[in-house]
Specification:
Blueprint (H helix, E strand, L loop, with lengths): L1 E7 L2 E8 L4 E4 L4 H4 L19 E2 L4 E3 L9 E5 L3 H8 L17 E5 L4 E2 L5 E4 L6 E2 L2 E7 L15 E8 L2 E2 H7 L3 H4 L5 E9 L9 E6 L2 E7 L7 H9 L9 E3 L21 E6 L3 E10 L2
Parallel strand pairs: 6-17, 8-14, 9-19
Antiparallel strand pairs: 1-2, 1-5, 1-14, 2-3, 3-4, 6-7, 10-13, 11-12, 11-17, 12-14, 15-16, 15-18, 18-19
Length: 290
């Protein structure tokens, strides 16, 4: 299923997307539950009935999970070529341990930096002059758990969405810990919708990123250094994963910092992320004074 969180007539709704018909059909959910986004559907044995379809161009698409319940788990250096390009960049605080990590590198982004498809991403030049893009497949956890084995990890996956892990490289390097550089306001475009786990084969799914129409990243989730079961097992070892948690699985080579000289984003740039079986996430970047 392809599922979206939308706003129509000032109300948030969650429902099914039909791309062939270009319609959205809201589930008959109480508004209080719909405020959670697609998280409201997790754990239900039966989905509610759907209301009459509405044309997609009559609704405002929000992020599938507009405000996650807690920080988004993110994975650094999880594609071989990106691990090498980032290790050589001078901004990698883990480079002393080797270009390719021996264990997953986990960091996080705060929930408040999530914005939807087509929302503006703000470049605050007073805070950073080195803003970069990172196209990523994001996992949405269904069944929570602690100490989840790698063998059973995929049983805990509810679905997937797209994330652009926007990063202020100078802040990432300055503070060593990545939270501040990764969590600037608007630095987590997400969407446009979520798909359930049965919709795509994450062992072989193409991922691409374009900046102003130019292909910058072109890879496949089958090339992850640490696959999704490994990530879930790693994070849940002593830390209880909860339904609705999001894990951004890492970005391929081709980010701005990997070029010589680096190709950082500027006001007016448009970044488009495509993941086969999910859709297209596109955002325009805008420079602001503060």
């Amino acid at each position: 299923m392809r599922l979206a969180t939308i706003s129509v007539a000032g109300e948030r709704r969650v429902g099914l997307v039909d791309l062939d018909q270009q319609t959205f059909s809201a589930f008959d959910l109480p508004l209080e539950e719909a405020r959670q986004g697609v998280t409201a559907l997790i754990g239900r044995s039966n989905l509610p009935r759907t209301l009459s379809p509405i044309a997609l161009d009559r609704v405002q698409i929000e992020a599938p999970i507009p405000r996650p319940n807690r920080n988004i788990f993110c994975v650094g250096k999880n594609y071989h070529e990106h691990a090498h390009e980032f290790s050589k960049s001078g901004f990698d605080s883990s480079a002393a341990a080797g270009a390719v990590p021996k264990h997953p590198i986990i960091f996080s982004k705060v929930p408040e930096c999530v914005v939807p498809n087509h929302a503006k991403v703000l470049i605050n030049r007073n805070a950073s002059t080195a803003v970069d893009y990172e196209a990523e497949l994001a996992v949405i956890i269904g069944a929570g758990g602690r100490g989840i084995s790698r063998e059973k990890a995929m049983e805990h996956v509810w679905g997937y969405t797209i994330v652009n892990d926007v990063t202020a490289r100078d802040l990432q390097g300055r503070y060593s810990q990545w939270l501040v550089g990764k969590s600037q306001d608007t630095f987590c475009p997400m969407g446009p919708w979520a798909v359930t786990a049965d919709e795509i084969n994450v062992a072989d799914t193409a991922i691409r990123c374009f900046v102003n129409g130019q292909l910058r990243q072109n890879s496949n989730t089958g090339l992850l250094i640490f696959d999704i079961p490994t990530l879930i097992a790693t994070i849940s070892a002593g830390l209880t994963l909860q339904p609705g948690d999001i894990i951004a699985t890492g970005t391929p080579a081709g980010v701005g910092i990997g070029f010589d000289p680096p190709r950082y984003l500027k006001g007016g740039d448009t970044v488009r992320v495509e993941i086969d079986g999910i859709g297209t996430l596109e955002n325009r970047f805008e420079e602001v004074a503060a």
